[in-house]
Design a protein that fits this description.
This is VOC family protein. The protein is of the alpha/beta class and about 140 residues long. The strands form 2 sheets. It has a 4-stranded mixed sheet, covered by helices on one side. It has a 4-stranded mixed sheet with strand order 5-8-7-6, with helices on one face. Strand 7 and strand 8 form a beta hairpin. The radius of gyration is 17 Å and the shape is elongated.
């Protein structure tokens, strides 16, 4: 098995909704296992023990098994970042989040370092960054229009 990095997101009771949302953005195959599927006592039977979304080239996982920290999720969240050279694919992900109500923190547009970059925060407070390498074919930012 080769090494890979997977995004694993903790939700306090919203894993099914969030993971279904992510599938609507990324496509792919979503598997959801509940606590009752594994006979876990003292947990909400329909709570998500483990969810896994396998999309082309990456995986997003999540669970309901973690309580929200007292200071809120914002203090403990990590940004999930797409680094790519596939403009149309990544633009589709970015647009999918925006169309479904994600808050735009940075529009997807050409940056001073030459790449296209944008950032959104989804309804569960997860920040998603999109950085697309800009080869010479995207002169003047035409690809982002």
């Amino acid at each position: 098995m080769s090494t890979s990095l997977v995004v694993y997101i903790s939700f306090a009771g919203a894993a099914r909704e969030a993971m279904t949302f992510y599938q609507s953005v990324f496509g792919g195959e979503l598997t959801i296992n509940t606590f009752s599927d594994f006979g876990i006592p003292d947990a909400p039977a329909d709570g998500v023990m483990h969810a896994e979304l396998r999309a082309e080239g990456f995986t997003v996982m999540g669970a309901d098994g973690f309580d929200e920290p007292a200071q809120g999720w914002g203090a403990s969240r990590t940004h999930a970042a797409f680094m790519s050279d596939e403009f149309d694919r990544v633009r589709g992900f970015y647009d999918g989040f925006v169309e479904r109500g994600a808050e735009v923190k940075q529009p997807l547009e050409k940056q001073v370092w030459g790449d296209f970059y944008g950032e959104v925060v989804d309804p569960w407070g997860v920040a998603w960054m999109f950085n697309v390498a800009a080869p010479g074919g995207w002169a003047g930012g035409a690809a982002a229009d």
